[in-house]
């Protein structure tokens, strides 16, 4: 995976890596030590002795009774201001505007903590493609010529082969397919090795998965999912953050919460008759 400095991370460079390139790129040192320390403190506090939260792609670990060695912390926006800073980071926002459209939204911001000895995941692709192992449930002709997802992984601990850095198979995003047993994922994969504070940006149609943590230290990361404006978000962020958060939200945060795209609506109940859409005089 290519690693670039922040000042080289133009929208063009990032989008090229996600589309024609391998599907992933690492931007070095995008977040400060204090941001990472604060994010890590919150993630650890919320996953120390908490009952288990829902997780994904961990069927094998569930079978082996090892689910407790990986922990998810959902709804991070409501758990600390640093997560708003991360999701609104201007270099990321610039790249996402180009990749997913100016009105892109956030579908999820969560942490994935893998404890020492913790399990890896099933190789997969991300929401909304994550159940593409049932391709007949998707529109005829769907492909990756335009993106319905982008992911940003922000390591809070060193991402090494030993700690369980995410594995991915470069260039698999070009053809939309859910990886199968016969695809030899684990023989072909590379690792998203990175330092705390780096940001790994990838197209979620690229085959990937968390890997087992074979070290003696924790491996946590913040995972942000971005989507085009018309894809239903995975976490109900708008409802989860509450009214106070929305009142104080910046214009970018309002967009990330989907507030610039006001559908679905009960059009039958709208009291004032206006022209809501169209080139001319649209009054949403
Ligand atoms: O934590 C990781 O390394 C990757 C997590 C992931 O791919 C997922 O949960 O969809």
Q: Could you say which structural class the secondary elements and strand pairing correspond to? A: alpha+beta
Mind telling me the C-alpha Rg? 19 Å
Named CATH architecture: Sandwich
Tell me the number of helical segments per DSSP (H or I, 4 or more residues long).
Answer: 9
Strand content: 15-25%
Helix content range: 10-25%
Report on this structure.
This protein is an alpha+beta fold and about 280 residues long. It has one domain: q2cbj1_9rhob like domain (Jelly Rolls, Sandwich), CATH 2.60.120.620. Helices cover about 25% and strands about 15% of the residues. It contains 9 helices and 10 strands. Strands 1-2-8-5-10-4-3 form a 7-stranded mixed sheet, with helices on one face. Helix 1 packs across helix 5. 2-oxoglutaric acid binds next to strand 9 and strand 10. InterPro entries: Phytyl_CoA_dOase-like.
Write the layout of secondary structure elements.
Elements: E1 3-4, H1 11-19, E2 24-27, H2 33-47, H3 59-63, E3 70-73, H4 81-87, H5 90-100, E4 105-114, E5 150-155, E6 167-168, H6 185-188, E7 190-191, E8 199-202, E9 208-209, E10 219-227, H7 237-241, H8 243-248, H9 251-256
Parallel strand pairs: 1-2
Antiparallel strand pairs: 2-8, 3-4, 4-10, 5-8, 5-10, 6-7, 6-9
Bound molecules: 2-oxoglutaric acid.
Quick gist of this model?
The protein is of the alpha+beta class. Helices cover 24% and strands 16% of the residues.
């Amino acid at each position: 995976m290519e690693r670039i400095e922040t000042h080289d991370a133009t929208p063009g460079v990032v989008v090229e890596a996600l589309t024609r390139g391998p599907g992933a790129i690492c931007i070095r040192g995008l977040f400060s030590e204090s941001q990472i320390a604060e994010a890590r403190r919150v993630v650890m506090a919320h996953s120390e002795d908490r009952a288990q939260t829902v997780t994904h792609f961990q069927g094998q670990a569930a079978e082996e009774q090892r689910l407790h060695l990986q922990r998810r912390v959902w709804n991070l926006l409501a758990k600390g201001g640093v997560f708003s800073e991360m999701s609104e980071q201007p270099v990321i926002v610039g790249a996402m505007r180009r990749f997913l459209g100016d009105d892109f939204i956030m579908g999820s911001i969560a942490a994935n903590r893998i404890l020492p000895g913790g399990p890896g995941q099933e190789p997969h692709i991300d929401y909304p493609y994550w159940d593409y192992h049932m391709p007949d449930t998707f529109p005829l002709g769907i492909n990756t010529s335009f993106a319905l997802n982008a992911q940003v992984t922000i390591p809070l601990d060193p991402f090494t082969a030993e700690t369980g850095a995410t594995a991915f198979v470069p260039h698999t995003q070009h053809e939309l397919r859910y990886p199968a047993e016969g695809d030899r994922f684990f023989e072909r994969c590379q690792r998203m090795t990175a330092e705390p504070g780096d940001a790994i940006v990838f197209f979620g149609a690229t085959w990937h998965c968390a890997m087992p943590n074979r070290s003696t230290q924790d491996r946590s990361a913040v995972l942000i999912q971005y989507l085009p404006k018309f894809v239903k978000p995975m976490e109900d962020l708008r409802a989860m953050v509450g009214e106070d958060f929305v009142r104080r939200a910046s214009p970018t945060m309002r967009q990330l919460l989907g507030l610039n795209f006001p559908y679905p609506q009960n059009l039958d109940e709208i009291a004032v008759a206006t022209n809501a859409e169209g080139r001319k005089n649209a009054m949403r």
